[in-house]
Design goal:
It contains 13 helices and nine strands. With 308 residues, the protein is of the alpha/beta class.
């Protein structure tokens, strides 16, 4: 099971669930009451795909938890591993019973607030570099000695995410084009995610996590920082803290899962970004749960004995 991160919101997402499944309304109501903000109203915003604020991360977390709860309500199979892309790591920890949902809501909500404060009066940009090797991009970044641009995520062999100060990111992308990048896309994130500029946020996250209980996951969770399944609370928290400013090693996570002879991947979230990343790999069966139709298709494919 793979859990997505932020920047994946779009208009009318989860509408096919919300109209039919009470478990979704209940989960969103639970989260909304805890953070004292109506997440359902936010999701019904006609411009949600363009919104970047402190509530978006909480919205994505709640969406994944609602989908997972529906999976368990239907008695869906447990996976061999879980992993979350960036913010999605919190979703994975909740669904593996390592972290209480309300505790995750608290951390993620404050995480969003802290990140929004970082961008006050400053301009940041996140871009996907398509078709260029990470070694070339790392070499380009060495020119920027003030470290205002970082590799935020290595999503696949041909997709590298960079983040940082807007002008510097633009310059890096121009250098990448000269070196042969096929496409460069702006992502719907206005925060310098997984960048050294986020270290002040990491310090605040550390303080919050010190007061939150994390247990051994009942399903192994592969973390973003060192591609390991940690069992001890201290190690899990350390990974969550470092994750704020370290590169997400997503390609390595997928490679790790494949090395365990697991070739079916199920994305638990309101979009299909991680599913699409895997579709280029012909050895993988990649399924999404972003709407009721896809959810039921995935459920039947994974749970062979399921009868409607």
């Amino acid at each position: 099971m793979l859990f997505p991160g932020q920047g994946i919101q779009y208009n009318n997402m989860l509408s096919s669930f919300l109209n039919r499944e009470n478990i979704f309304k209940n989960t969103f109501q639970e989260a909304s009451e805890y953070i004292n903000f109506n997440l359902l109203n936010l999701m019904k915003n006609d411009s949600i795909e363009k919104i970047n604020n402190e509530y978006i991360q909480t919205l994505i977390l709640t969406s994944s938890i609602a989908i997972y709860r529906l999976w368990k309500k239907y008695n869906g199979k447990n996976p061999a591993f879980m992993s979350g892309h960036s913010l999605g790591e919190y979703s994975a920890l909740v669904c593996s019973n390592a972290m209480n949902f309300k505790d995750a809501l608290k951390v993620v909500y404050l995480r969003g607030q802290f990140m929004q404060k970082i961008i006050l009066n400053r301009s940041f940009l996140v871009q996907a570099i398509i078709g260029l090797d990470k070694k070339i991009i790392k070499k380009i970044l060495k020119k920027y000695v003030n470290k205002t641009v970082s590799i935020a995520s290595i999503n696949s062999k041909n997709q590298i995410i960079i983040s940082g100060e807007t002008l510097d990111v633009h310059q890096v992308s121009l250098d990448c084009r000269k070196k042969g990048a096929k496409f460069i896309l702006n992502l719907n994130i206005n925060i310098p995610v997984h960048n050294y500029l986020m270290k002040p946020v990491a310090k605040k996250i550390k303080y919050i996590l010190n007061n939150i209980k994390i247990k051994k996951p009942i399903i192994p969770v592969i973390n973003n920082v060192n591609v390991k399944c940690e069992n001890h609370s201290k190690n899990i928290k350390t990974a969550l803290i470092k994750q704020v400013y370290k590169t997400v090693r997503w390609k390595e996570i997928i490679d790790f899962i494949k090395s365990k002879k697991i070739f079916t991947m199920l994305e638990i979230g309101p979009n299909n970004i991680l599913t699409n990343l895997n579709k280029k790999n012909k050895n993988l069966v990649s399924l999404s749960t972003n709407n009721k139709k896809n959810f039921l298709y995935a459920f039947k494919k994974i749970n062979k004995n399921y009868e409607k």
